[in-house]
Specification:
Strand order of the largest sheet: 1-2
Number of strands: 2
Organism: Actinacidiphila oryziradicis
Protein name: MFS transporter
Structural class: mainly alpha
Distance between the termini: 23 Å
Helix content: over 70%
CATH class of the largest domain: Mainly Alpha
Low-confidence stretches: 387-415
Membrane topology: Multi-pass membrane protein
Mean pLDDT: 83
CATH topology of the largest domain: Growth Hormone, Chain: A
Keywords: Cell membrane, Membrane, Transmembrane, Transmembrane helix
InterPro entries: MFS, MFS_dom, MFS_Efflux_Transporters, MFS_trans_sf
Radius of gyration: 21 Å
């Protein structure tokens, strides 16, 4: 794996750690800031709101900035947000700091995905993107449990301080190992927004919101489901969450090569398997071993969806993939909020602690329907490509033809 991909994975590791560690430290944060635990939970929403807002806005602002420089600027903002979180004197400023920390999240993943796809041969673009995403899944195995334990032992501020250090390491790695990738002549906010108007991009984002909402419908309530139905103690739930992360890592490793071979079939299979796994969990949650096996599988097929959705959006956005790739992470955070809300409604309605599994299955099926709709609409249309050469952001829509293509050489594009 090129060192540049490793640097991008470190960025993803830091993002994954800061995003999910807050959930495990809510009691400590509530005590430290003098608010209730439910009120402290608004910090999770503040971060998610930052992601939703920041992905399109920061990507648009940086549309003409070379990718490496933009990655460095966004990583710097990530460090500032987490330092501000560690130093916040009261809940109001902590809320603002978590919003600030969330702002670069989607843009970092979006720009990082475009950069990763251009670091390798075109036929390995999806594998490169999935390697970057490995940082996020490993964070669920190592970063989140370690951050939670650190915050419980040394105070919640220490967890955010540790994430800021990870951000500094990522910043140095990006500066050292990521090569310069110039923007094309037609790069800019208008070019990116024009690409976002593609119907297939809209359907891809809707698929991410609805289909991945099925994943979060269960993930959001996994701990109470395990303690109330499976009989697992509170002290053991961290290990179960790590097991979930192991499944996510395996799914990400498998998704890359399969997406390079067949993008849409990989997406269809991931959503179908997620629905089946959720239904299975509804019945296995009452027994420890079957529940653990099913949880690992849900983690695997959930992350299995991430890479094909990312590559699909980059392909349909054609020569301006950065904002579409970043907006995918806004979609995932909307999926997080929507899935958790619908799963909570099912529990509140008296359907039982296992009911989020069925809600998740229904959302996964709905996402599969959207994905199929996009596939049917794509029939008969010209092939879509993921632009992977660093100079390919000059649009062919304006009648320009890449020099390599005029000379009969490979253009660095990967068909979906």
């Amino acid at each position: 794996m090129p060192l540049a991909l490793l640097a991008l994975a470190v960025v993803a590791f830091g993002i994954g750690t800061t995003e999910f560690a807050t959930m495990g430290l809510l009691p400590q944060i509530a005590d430290g800031t003098g608010v209730s635990v439910p009120h402290a939970g608004n910090l999770v929403s503040a971060y998610a709101l930052g992601v939703v807002v920041g992905a399109p806005v920061l990507t648009g602002i940086g549309a003409r900035i070379p990718h490496k420089r933009l990655l460095l600027l966004l990583s710097g903002l990530f460090v500032v947000g987490n330092v501000a979180s560690a130093l916040a004197p009261d809940f109001g400023l902590l809320f603002a700091a978590r919003f600030l920390a969330g702002l670069p999240h989607g843009a970092l993943f979006g720009v990082g995905a475009v950069v990763a796809s251009r670091l390798v041969a075109p036929e390995r673009a999806a594998r490169a993107v999935s390697r970057m995403f490995l940082g996020l899944t490993v964070a669920n195995i190592v970063g989140v449990p370690a951050g939670t334990a650190l915050g419980q032992q040394l105070g919640w501020r220490s967890a955010y301080a540790a994430v800021a250090v990870i951000g500094l390491v990522a910043l140095a790695s990006l500066a050292l190992f990521v090569p310069h990738q110039p923007r094309g002549q037609q790069s800019g906010i208008r070019h990116e927004l024009r690409a976002m108007g593609n119907r297939q991009v809209a359907i891809g984002l809707a698929t991410a919101v609805v289909g991945f909402g099925g994943f979060f419908a269960v993930y959001s309530y996994l701990v109470p489901m395990l303690t109330n139905l499976t009989g697992i103690s509170d002290s053991s739930t961290t290990l179960v969450l790590a097991l979930y992360g192991v499944g996510m890592t395996l799914g990400t490793l498998i998704a890359g090569p399969l997406t390079d071979r067949a993008l849409r079939p990989t997406l269809y299979a991931g959503l179908a398997l997620l629905a089946a796994a959720q239904v299975t969990f509804y019945f296995t949650v009452h027994s420890t071993v079957p529940a653990m096996v099913t949880i690992t599988f849900i983690g695997a097929v959930g992350s299995f969806i991430t890479t094909p959705v990312q590559m699909l959006l980059m392909a349909k956005a054609k020569n301006a993939p950065t904002m579409a790739a970043a907006s995918n992470h806004s979609a995932f955070n909307l999926a997080n909020a929507g899935g958790a809300w619908l799963g909570g409604l099912a529990i509140s309605a008296g359907w039982g602690w296992a009911s989020p599994s069925l809600v998740g299955a229904a959302l996964a099926v709905a996402g599969l329907g959207l994905a199929f709709t996009g596939g049917l609409m794509d029939r008969g249309s010209p092939r879509s490509e993921v632009i992977t050469s660093s100079g390919a952001e000059t649009s062919t829509e304006a009648g320009q033809v890449p020099a390599a293509q005029r000379m009969g050489e490979p253009t660095g594009e990967v068909s979906t």
